[in-house]
Amino acid sequence: MSNLDSQIRERTRLRRRDVIALTAIMTMVFVVLAMTGGIGIWEAIAAVAAVAALGFIYYLLVTAPVRREPPAIIAPAARPVENPLHLADTIVARLPTPVLVIGPGGRIEQANPAARDFLGLGAEGAQLSAVLRQPKVLESISGALRGEAQKPVEYSTFAPMESHIRAHVIPLKTGLEGPFPWRALLVMSDETSIKRADRMRADFLANASHELRTPLASLAGFIETLRGHAREDIGARDRFLSIMQDQTERMRRLIDDLLSLSRVEMDEHLPPSDEVDVAAIARDTVDVLGPIAREKGVMIEADADERAIVTGQRDQLIEVAQNLVENAIKYSVSGSRVVIEVRGGLTREQAEHSSHSLGNQAARVTIAVPSGSASGQAKRRFAVIRVRDAGVGIERRHLPRLSERFYRVDGQKSGPKEGTGLGLAIVKHIVSRHRGGFVVESAQGEGSVFSVFLPMPVEKPAIQEAGPARS
């Protein structure tokens, strides 16, 4: 009986330690989330109160004296009471914010699914330094493992995608005996959207003020002329009003493109997850831009597979197709043909190098490439949107700069339908967000081919229902 008593006491001590440690961890997590704006202050207070109540109830249960004699009648419970520790683990697992518990030597002892996805962890037990190469964060964790309070650490990465992270490191006293009584709680907050918004606001003001200066100056000059000596000149007034309308339309296109580019760049680090049929988008693009092509005497047609499903956002992919086809129509000569082709089920190499040949003199440049490891890309399949025109072509020296903001090729910078120089920049950023590729091939006198290839959905194997999280 003494041996049994000692086992019960030891088990009770361990349970007390576990519930105190877990309640402290949960409280810290909700406090950090409230401080960073992840959840509201009242939600955090309610969550902390619920966790504290559950921890207190469980503490009373595990410290209650054990009755040796069994009850006369054991009635089955109508509904089993969920383990409070399991409930707390479930809450942490459902949090969208990466949360990790780091043990001695920088070993990852616990990580919620958001942290595993964010860091690409295969399993717990790995060294944090192997997946997070940020010296300031690792130094802060080393200090927390010694029981020292730490300040938030900010760091940025720019490959494969730009991201800005704020890491909160909190020392946790476990109550364990031995040389390593401390653990480090690492909570990572993604502030990319906030940083991008600040930068986009400054860029938008700078770009808009620069590009709008010329049409605004033209409008001011024409208005002054119409109010002066051309007041009674009907011919001059009609001519000036027509030019003013063109300049106003140019400003409208410029503002629309700047807003579109800002929206795309804001979400570029967040890949889309919907399934989109790009073959249907190609056919819709032909229907929408057909009148513009006929007005210029250009024939436009779609050569698309029956279905080509990609992982993407439909509105943005429509913008890609329409930008490429509209450019092709704009720079094609009357009587020529523009073709938008869609092919699916291609490897990356096939998608990148299977464009229509324009001859040995054609120049080729890759503007964007799919992100991810080479082994992962080798297994993926891609769908290609390819737009070919029979225009004058583009000189080799211009190709690398086509996707720069406001860059326009010489000889294409004037006229009432002058572009804003933002269309291909928008295409590049949309393709980057979709983790796809963008290739341009052109030969002077023969035309150009713009190819965009996008990842197709991956068939996921059936996943068995996971058991309860470890405490």
From TrEMBL:
Residue intervals of the Histidine kinase domain: 207-458
GO molecular function ontology, one term from the record: ATP binding
Top-rank taxon: Bacteria
EC number: 2.7.13.3
Keyword DNA-binding: no
Catalytic activity reported: ATP + protein L-histidine = ADP + protein N-phospho-L-histidine
Keywords: ATP-binding, Kinase, Membrane, Nucleotide-binding, Phosphoprotein, Transferase, Transmembrane, Transmembrane helix, Two-component regulatory system
CDD domains assigned to the protein according to its UniProt record, in alphabetical order: HisKA (cd00082), PAS (cd00130)
Pfam families hit by this protein: HATPase_c, HisKA, PAS_8
Annotated TM spans: 20-39, 45-62
Class of enzymatic activity (EC top level): transferase
InterPro entries for the chain: BphY/WalK/GraS-like, HATPase_C_sf, HATPase_dom, His_kinase_dom, HisK_dim/P_dom, HisK_dim/P_sf, PAS, Sig_transdc_His_kin-like_C
Protein name (database record): histidine kinase
Taxonomy of the source species: Bacteria, Pseudomonadati, Pseudomonadota, Alphaproteobacteria, Maricaulales
